[in-house]
Amino acid sequence: MKVISGKVQKAQRVIVYGPEGIGKSTFASHFPKPIFVDVEGGTNHIDCDRMERPLSFSSMMAEIKDAMHSDYQTIVVVIVTGK
């Protein structure tokens, strides 16, 4: 029997859902070294690093890939549903 003990260092995936203006992006801005992919353009009020607003799904995926190979430790994708 093979037993693995202790923490396993692996990226965490977190989804934060809530109504507009409740502080989801502000909360995410406190994660370790975040970079925002702001699809909706709603992080202007936050002092954070952000990429240019992607104009297509493929450009968003390219930005995420670039962020994965950078010094940033957290990638935050800001999207709006139901508008």
Q: Can you describe this structure?
A:
The chain has helices at residues 24-28, 57-68; strands at residues 34-38, 49-50, 74-78. The radius of gyration is 15 Å and the shape is globular. The protein is α/β, with parallel strands linked by helices and 83 residues long. The chain is built from two helices and three strands. It has a three-stranded parallel sheet with strand order 2-1-3, covered by helices on one side. 20% of the residues lie in helices and 14% in strands.
Write the layout of secondary structure elements.
Blueprint (H helix, E strand, L loop, with lengths): L23 H5 L5 E5 L10 E2 L6 H12 L5 E5 L5
Parallel strand pairs: 1-2, 1-3
Defining key terms:
single chain; 83 residues; alpha/beta; 3-stranded parallel beta sheet; 20% helix; 14% strand; globular
Mean pLDDT: 90
**Class by alpha and beta content:** alpha/beta
Strand order within the widest sheet? 2-1-3
Instruction: State the oligomer.
Output: single chain
Counted by DSSP, the helix tally is: 2
Q: What is the helix/strand order?
A: HEEHE
Portion of residues within helices: 10-25%
Which regions are unreliable across 5 or more consecutive residues at pLDDT < 50?
A: none
What is the number of E strands?
Answer: 3
Provide the gyration radius in Å.
15 Å
